[in-house]
């Protein structure tokens, strides 16, 4: 009995110990709550890969058509083509005025300079008493008009002698007297034709020289119009490579009358361009080649030497027919200084006087001819394209002294 009781007591004690331990464990768990479990990641099912063609759906039994039974779509009408951009036609060539009688047609412009020279002389000569003071006034009038000292003295002496012999001095007689003496001073027998004939197989070659500002390039373009008006074919050589846009200016003049312009790069060798221009003129069978040279300052020796080089290079094709010096009529005696220097470098054969319109300097025609011993062949009387006229002494004097 005692042994049984001892066993039962041991079992009870063991159960009590187990219960105590379990209570302690549960209490500690209540004091320290575990963190909530992380949310479960949803399962994403990727979309099925799209199928193409017959795999896009479950094949079905249906009637199939042959290629002959399939109708083709209607042909798409081609897009309308954009209308072609019309290239503008080249400007119509201008027809220059004929040169015959051109100076007579421009007489009104030339007559603007008559107040100081022609009408002034007639007024003085019409005085009742032609004393020494009056003759001095006549000399001053001639000098102011740039006739020059020697020609003025010569003209006054001849007028004094003829007035003394004539006795009576009606306006008609004085006008006829003055007209005759002025024409005599202008040299009516001088050859004023611009020579452009050239040789049997070479064109006529004309070189145009002058100082900047005299209208040299413009004169070259106007001379091309004069020659075209006379039925000649012309090639222009733009050898003025030192002045900006000089070649463009000359080319514009040429295009207006159908004359081709030979040009080179800006700042290029003028002699080379002049040579090429003559070469092109020979190849094309042109009648005349006009070479526009740089407007060099006559005080710069090196540049003047280069002008001589241009002349020598051009002459490798043949002799020059003309060397025209362009002078501004308003520069007076300064123009004569320029003329002397140019004449030393190249053999001047003719003179072109520009800006004679609206000026009282008409007497420069007489002075420059006397200075160089070469004739004035052309005169410029305005800004119009056909305002360059062959010089005619009779028409020139008539414009100066009026009717």
Automatic annotation (TrEMBL):
Documented EC number(s): 3.6.5.4
Subcellular locations according to the entry: Cell membrane; Cytoplasm
Biased composition (Low complexity): 75-87
SMART domains with a match to the protein in the record: AAA (SM00382), SRP54 (SM00962), SRP54_N (SM00963)
Primary location recorded for the protein, binned into one broad class: membrane
Record protein name field: Signal recognition particle receptor FtsY
Residues holding GTP: 210-217, 292-296, 354-357
Residue ranges of every copy of the SRP54-type proteins GTP-binding domain listed in the record: 375-388
Family according to the record: Belongs to the GTP-binding SRP family. FtsY subfamily.
Pro residues bias (residue ranges): 34-49
Stretches that traverse the bilayer: 6-26
Keyword GTP-binding: yes
Residue ranges with Basic and acidic residues bias: 51-68
Subunit structure: Part of the signal recognition particle protein translocation system, which is composed of SRP and FtsY.
Region (Disordered): 29-98
Superkingdom of origin organism: Bacteria
Family annotation (InterPro entries): AAA+_ATPase, P-loop_NTPase, Signal_recog_particl_SRP54_hlx, SR_rcpt_FtsY, SRP/SRP_N, SRP54_GTPase_dom, SRP54_N_sf
Species, as recorded: Streptomyces rhizosphaericola
Catalytic reaction annotation: GTP + H2O = GDP + phosphate + H(+)
Enzyme class: hydrolase
HAMAP family referenced in this protein's UniProt entry, alphabetically: FtsY (MF_00920)
Topology term for the membrane: Peripheral membrane protein
NCBIfam families tied to this protein: ftsY
Known function: Involved in targeting and insertion of nascent membrane proteins into the cytoplasmic membrane. Acts as a receptor for the complex formed by the signal recognition particle (SRP) and the ribosome-nascent chain (RNC).
Alphabetically ordered keywords of this record: Cell membrane, Cytoplasm, GTP-binding, Hydrolase, Membrane, Nucleotide-binding, Receptor, Transmembrane, Transmembrane helix
């Amino acid at each position: 009995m005692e042994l049984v009781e001892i066993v039962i007591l041991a079992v009870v004690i063991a159960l009590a110990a187990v219960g105590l331990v379990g209570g302690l464990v549960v209490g500690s768990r209540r004091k320290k709550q575990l963190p909530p479990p992380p949310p479960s990641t949803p399962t994403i099912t990727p979309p099925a890969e799209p199928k193409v063609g017959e795999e896009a759906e479950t094949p079905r039994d249906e009637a199939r058509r042959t290629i002959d039974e399939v109708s083709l779509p209607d042909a798409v009408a081609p897009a309308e083509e954009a209308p072609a951009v019309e290239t503008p036609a080249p400007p119509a060539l201008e027809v220059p005025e004929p040169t015959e009688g051109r100076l007579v047609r421009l007489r009104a412009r030339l007559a603007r300079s008559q107040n100081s020279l022609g009408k002034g002389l007639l007024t003085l000569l019409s005085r009742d008493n032609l004393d020494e003071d009056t003759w001095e006034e006549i000399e001053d009038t001639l000098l102011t008009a740039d006739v020059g000292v020697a020609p003025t003295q010569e003209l006054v002496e001849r007028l004094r002698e003829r007035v003394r012999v004539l006795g009576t001095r009606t306006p008609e007689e004085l006008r006829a007297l003055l007209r005759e003496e002025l024409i005599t001073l202008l040299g009516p027998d001088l050859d004023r034709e611009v020579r452009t004939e050239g040789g049997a197989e070479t064109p006529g070659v004309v070189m145009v020289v002058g100082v900047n500002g005299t209208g040299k390039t413009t004169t070259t373009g106007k001379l091309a119009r004069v020659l075209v008006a006379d039925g000649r074919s012309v090639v222009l050589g733009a050898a003025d490579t030192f002045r900006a846009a000089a070649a463009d200016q000359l080319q514009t003049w040429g295009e207006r009358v159908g004359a081709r312009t030979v040009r080179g790069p800006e700042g290029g060798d003028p002699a080379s361009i002049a040579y090429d221009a003559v070469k092109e003129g020979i190849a094309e069978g042109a009648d005349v080649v006009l070479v526009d040279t740089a407007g060099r300052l006559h005080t710069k020796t090196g540049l003047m030497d280069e002008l001589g080089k241009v002349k020598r290079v051009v002459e490798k094709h043949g002799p020059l027919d003309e060397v025209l010096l362009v002078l501004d009529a308003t520069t007076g005696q300064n123009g004569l200084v320029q003329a002397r220097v140019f004449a030393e470098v190249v053999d001047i054969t003719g003179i072109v006087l520009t800006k004679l319109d609206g000026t009282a300097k008409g007497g420069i025609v007489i002075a420059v001819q006397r200075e160089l011993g070469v004739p004035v062949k052309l005169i410029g009387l305005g800004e119009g394209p056909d305002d360059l006229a062959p010089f005619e002494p009779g028409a020139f004097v008539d414009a100066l002294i009026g009717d």
